[in-house]
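B., you asked whether I could sanity-check this one before it goes into the benchmark set. Here's the sequence:
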Amino acid sequence: MSTRPDAARADVLVVGAGWAGLSAALHLTQAGRRVHLVESAAVPGGRAREVRLDLGFGPLTLDAGQHLLVGAYRESLQLAQRLHAGAAPFDRFPLALRDTAGLRLAAVPLPAPLHLAGALALARGLGPGGRLAAVRLLAGLRRAGWQVLPGETVAALLARLRQPPALIERLWSPLCVAALNTAAEAACANAFAAVLRDTLGADRGAADFVLPRATLAALIAHPAAAWLAAHGATLSWRTTARAIAACPGGWRVHTGADAPLEAAQLVLAVPARNAARLLAPLTPRATPLARFVEDPIATVYLAWPAAQVPRLPRWIMLRESIERGEHGQWLFDRGCLQGHRLAAAVISTGGRLGDATPAALAEGVVRQLGAQLGLPAPSGARTVVEKRATLRCTPQRPRVDADLVAADLPGIWLAGDYAYPDYPATLEGAVRSGRIAAERALGFAAQRTNALHTVPRSFAEQGGAPQTVL
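And here's what the prediction gave me:
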């Protein structure tokens, strides 16, 4: 289904309406290009989608997975504010880490880097020598320009910089899992260092925790699609790209419909495996796309009568026990809905869950919450497992960017969380990759026509709030 059926040929065809594709389409439309955005699903959002769940008191619309944004996600947060006419549809909180065993670390109201120094000086639960060891790690990375050894894992980095086991268990390992969705023993130290550089090693606000007030779809996907439709872009849902071929003046995408779609350029903002399938017949440069390893993430939603559980920590780290089948790593308070307290427990590094069923995952989280927080059994619990939620972030993962196939296939650009190689698979990486793909498309068009000599500023940074259509 298309919002405008008359646009058979576009300047740029964007395939995929996740955050990367939406970002690319927004930047291109803002720059005055004719954009056609196609998506195989019925709604935009990609993996940051919504689900309908019933926890025993009526259906709820929730995120398919609980995401924690941080202040360093500048392009995502700017984009959200632009789409909401300058308002901030999220809440920001200064860095504050705590777990169920007494860890407490909170930023102090001082300029960077004193905010972090104060946090470490006043921290509790880091173990003997933990404060100094944490300073040693951050100072050592800063002196090295946030560079690590080639092929180094996070576990090897922590050992090299003499981090004590208690500090690794209580702080660095949970942060690694939260940021990279990969256990420290296998995780890429280079990506971990980049995350630390842009959060703990940057200005005070970069380490803020950011919680959307509604779902992620309401934060970005729905208002972005509405803005695009209102500003002349063509949007087609339930439209799957099945094959790509060259055509005069550009590219043709076959979707199984009667007439293929044509455009001067393509932005492929689809999962790496889908991009590999589409591009492999056209160029061997697409080979690395098939080497990404996808991992699941599970989110256990729980509900209690509000009178029974009047409050919860806004967020807290849980102690995981693989041996006991207790895999919860973070718990987030989702507030009160329809007289019930709602919470979400996140289980990353899903590749080690084996054949655990959704019910077993929920039972393990319930045991954790009872033992670690003294919570009663919930009145309802549901587990959402996204089987292909993220990409395993190891030193061996492919490093690709928007230009991967451009030498062989001029005018085809990649966008997606995998196409921003400095970061692990994150929403921010997806947004940045979409902006970069749009810049490549604009620059390519300028070279062809010799009529465009500058690339407009990013959509999120341009003045004059766009009218949002909700």
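One thing to flag: Residues 463-470 have pLDDT under 50 and may be disordered. Otherwise nothing jumped out at me.
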